[in-house]
C-alpha cells in the first residue's frame, strides 16, 4: 500500500504544491499512515496553513497558533450569542438557528444552568459547549463541597478558561470549537459576566457578543448604559440586537433562547418562553416600523 | 511479632451525637421534630444545633446519631438537589426516592464496614399523599405512620402509637410530638427542652424556629423526697 502511494500519489501532489515539499519530508505522519486518503488529507490541509496548522502545539513563524484560530472561526460560525451584565443581574441570549423544520421546540438548548447562582451560554459547537457546561457544574459542586458556598465568578471563569486552555496545548486533543459566556450573581459582589474563547482567554464584561454578527451587536451593546439597565429592559435590548443581526430573507429561521440570574429571583432560571416571545415580537414590530419610516 | 492483625475499625463509636427524632404522619401532611442538642459524649456540647433539613419543597429530613455523618449526608443531598436544579426539567426527587437513596447510601457505607452512624427520618407530602420513612445505620429502610429514633423508640413510640389516628391533622400532630419531647426531656439524659418542629404540607416545607417546652418539676415526690430510694419516678 505504502509503495503504490509513494510512487503514484505524492509526486502528483508535489507538482502542484511545491511549497509544502519540505513539510512532507519532515512529517513523521507519512511513515505511519497506510491509506491514500489519510495522506491526501494531511497534504491538502497543510497547504492552507503552510504546515503550521496541523497541531495546536506549534506556533507559526509569525507567532500564531492556527488550530486555535480555526476553533475561533468555528465558534463564530454559529448564531449570535449575547450577554448583558445589568444592575440587578445577568441576562444571556442566543440566536439558535433551526436547521430543520422538524425540530422540536426548545431542543438542543444552548443556554445552561450551572448552579443556583451561575448560568452559561454557548456560541459555536453545541456539544463542545455542553462539555464545558458539565465541567462548570462539576467545578461548582466541588467548590461547594469544600467551602460550602457558591463558587465566586472569577474563580469559575478562571477554572473553565484553564480547562479550555489546556485543550490548546497538546496534539492529541482538539481545542474547543466554542466561545462561552458565564453569568453569575453573588450576594456580596453582585452580577458578573465573563466570556471565554477557544484559546482560554477570558475577560469580564458589561456586555459581550460572540457568533455570527458579533461586530454589529458589539456596536449596539456599546450604546447601552449598563449601570442603569435592568434585566427586564435587557430582554428587549437583546431581542432587538438579535433581530437586527438576522436577515430574514437570507438566514434560516431561529429560536431565541434566554437565561438570567436576577437579584429578586435569588437563583438562576430560564426566561419564561412567553416573555421571550413578547420581547421578540416587540423587537420585530419595531424593526418593521423603522423600515416603514425609511 | 504480632501475626494476627486486628480488623480495621473505621468507625467504632460516634463522637458528637444528636438524640431522638420523632415523626408522625397526618392526613394533611407530615410532622417531624428533633431537639436542638448535639452532645459530646454526655456533655451537652452544642445546644442550638438544627438536626432538621429541608431537602426539597416537599421533603424534609431529620437526623439523629453522629452529627458529622449527618452533615456529610446533608452535603450529598445538596449535590443531588443542585443536579436536579440544573436539569431544569420540572422534576424533583420525591420523598420516597430520597428515602430509598439514603437507604442505598447508608447500606453502601455499612458494607464498607464504615457506616454513617445515623438514624434518619424522611418525611414529605406529594400529590396529597403523606410519606414517612426511616433509614438506620445498616441501610435498613422502612415506612410507618409513626416513627422514632434513639431513646424515642423506647419512650416515644408507645405514646405515638396510642395517640395516632389516620385522620390526625398536622396541628394535632405537632401537639402530640411536643408531648413526646416533654417526656423524653424528663427521662432521656441526652436531650434538651428546646425543639424544632418541621412540617410538610400542601403549602410546602416549614421548619420552625427552635423553642422551649414548658416543663414542670414541682411534683410532690421531687419537692419532698422522703428517701433517696423509695420515691423512684419509674
Automatic annotation (TrEMBL), chain A:
SMART domains: Proteasome_A_N. The keyword Acyltransferase does not apply. It is found in: Cytoplasm; Nucleus. The keyword Ribonucleoprotein does not apply. One of its GO terms (biological process) is ubiquitin-dependent protein catabolic process. PROSITE patterns: PROTEASOME_ALPHA_1, PROTEASOME_ALPHA_2. One of its GO terms (cellular component) is cytoplasm. Pfam families: Proteasome, Proteasome_A_N. One of its GO terms (molecular function) is hydrolase activity. Coiled coil: none annotated. Belongs to the peptidase T1A family. The 26S proteasome consists of a 20S proteasome core and two 19S regulatory subunits. The proteasome is a multicatalytic proteinase complex which is characterized by its ability to cleave peptides with Arg, Phe, Tyr, Leu, and Glu adjacent to the leaving group at neutral or slightly basic pH. The proteasome has an ATP-dependent proteolytic activity. This is Proteasome subunit alpha type. The lineage of its organism: Eukaryota, Rhodophyta, Bangiophyceae, Galdieriales, Galdieriaceae.
Automatic annotation (TrEMBL), chain B:
It is found in: Cytoplasm; Nucleus. Signal peptide: none annotated. It holds the Pfam family Proteasome. The keyword Hydrolase applies. Non-catalytic component of the proteasome. Belongs to the peptidase T1B family. This is Proteasome subunit beta.
Amino acid at each position: 500500500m505504502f509503495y503504490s502511494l509513494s510512487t503514484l500519489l505524492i509526486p502528483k501532489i508535489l507538482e502542484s504544491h511545491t511549497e509544502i515539499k519540505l513539510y512532507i519530508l519532515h512529517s513523521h505522519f507519512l511513515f505511519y499512515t497506510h491509506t491514500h486518503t489519510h495522506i491526501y488529507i494531511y497534504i491538502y490541509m497543510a497547504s492552507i496553513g503552510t504546515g503550521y496548522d496541523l497541531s495546536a502545539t506549534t506556533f507559526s513563524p509569525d507567532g500564531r497558533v492556527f488550530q486555535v484560530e480555526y476553533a475561533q472561526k468555528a465558534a463564530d460560525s454559529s448564531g449570535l450569542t449575547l450577554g448583558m451584565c445589568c444592575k440587578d443581574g445577568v441576562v444571556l441570549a442566543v440566536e439558535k438557528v433551526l436547521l430543520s423544520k422538524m425540530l422540536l421546540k426548545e431542543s438542543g438548548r444552548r443556554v445552561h444552568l450551572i448552579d443556583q447562582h451561575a448560568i452559561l451560554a454557548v456560541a459555536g459547537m453545541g456539544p463542545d459547549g455542553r462539555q464545558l457546561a458539565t465541567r462548570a457544574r462539576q467545578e461548582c459542586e466541588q467548590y461547594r463541597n469544600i467551602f460550602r458556598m457558591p463558587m465566586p465568578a472569577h474563580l469559575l471563569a478562571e477554572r473553565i478558561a484553564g480547562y479550555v486552555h489546556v485543550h490548546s496545548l497538546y496534539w492529541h486533543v482538539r481545542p474547543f470549537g466554542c466561545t462561552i459566556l458565564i453569568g453569575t450573581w453573588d450576594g456580596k459582589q453582585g452580577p458578573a459576566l465573563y466570556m471565554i474563547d477557544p484559546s482560554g482567554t477570558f475577560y469580564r464584561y458589561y456586555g459581550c457578543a460572540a457568533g455570527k454578527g458579533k461586530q454589529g451587536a458589539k456596536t449596539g451593546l456599546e450604546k447601552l448604559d449598563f449601570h442603569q439597565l435592568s434585566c427586564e429592559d435587557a430582554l428587549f435590548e437583546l431581542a432587538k440586537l438579535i433581530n437586527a443581526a438576522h436577515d430574514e430573507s437570507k438566514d434560516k429561521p431561529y429560536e431565541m433562547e434566554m437565561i438570567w440570574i436576577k437579584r429578586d429571583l435569588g437563583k438562576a432560571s430560564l426566561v419564561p418562553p412567553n416573555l421571550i416571545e413578547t420581547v421578540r415580537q416587540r423587537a420585530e414590530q419595531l424593526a418593521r416600523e423603522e423600515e416603514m419610516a425609511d | 511479632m504480632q501475626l494476627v492483625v486486628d480488623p480495621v475499625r473505621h468507625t467504632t463509636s460516634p463522637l458528637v451525637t444528636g438524640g431522638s427524632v420523632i415523626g408522625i404522619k397526618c392526613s394533611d401532611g407530615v410532622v417531624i421534630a428533633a431537639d436542638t442538642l448535639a452532645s459530646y459524649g454526655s456533655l451537652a456540647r452544642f445546644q442550638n444545633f438544627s438536626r432538621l433539613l429541608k431537602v426539597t419543597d416537599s421533603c424534609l429530613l431529620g437526623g439523629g446519631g453522629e452529627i458529622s455523618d449527618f452533615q456529610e449526608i446533608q452535603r450529598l443531598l445538596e449535590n443531588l438537589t443542585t443536579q436536579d436544579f440544573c436539569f431544569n426539567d420540572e422534576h424533583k426527587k420525591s420523598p420516597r426516592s430520597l428515602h430509598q437513596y439514603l437507604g442505598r447510601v447508608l447500606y453502601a457505607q455499612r458494607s464498607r464496614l464504615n457506616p454513617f452512624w445515623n438514624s434518619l427520618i424522611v418525611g414529605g407530602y406529594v400529590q396529597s399523599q403523606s410519606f414517612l420513612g426511616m433509614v438506620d445505620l445498616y441501610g435498613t429502610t422502612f415506612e410507618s405512620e409513626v416513627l422514632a429514633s434513639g431513646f424515642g423508640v423506647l419512650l416515644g413510640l408507645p405514646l405515638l402509637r396510642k395517640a395516632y389516628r389516620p385522620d390526625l391533622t398536622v396541628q394535632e400532630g405537632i401537639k402530640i410530638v411536643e408531648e413526646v419531647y416533654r417526656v423524653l426531656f424528663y427521662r432521656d439524659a441526652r436531650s434538651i427542652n428546646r425543639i424544632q418542629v418541621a412540617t410538610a404540607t400542601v403549602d410546602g416545607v416549614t421548619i420552625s424556629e427552635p423553642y422551649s417546652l414548658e416543663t414542670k418539676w414541682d411534683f410532690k415526690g421531687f419537692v419532698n423526697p422522703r428517701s433517696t430510694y423509695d420515691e423512684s419516678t419509674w
